[in-house]
Amino acid sequence: MNDDRIPLTGFDGSRQWTEGNGYLPVTLTDDFTGNVVPIDVWDSELMTGSLVTQILSMGKLLRSGWEFHLTGDGSGCYGLTPGGAHKVVVDLGVDDLLRIQHSVRAGPSSAPMNQLPAASAAPVNALRRSAPDATAWFLHDVLNHCSMEKIFQTLGSTTGYK
Question: What contacts 47, CB < 8 A, 6 or more positions away?
Answer without folding.
Answer: 8, 16, 18, 19
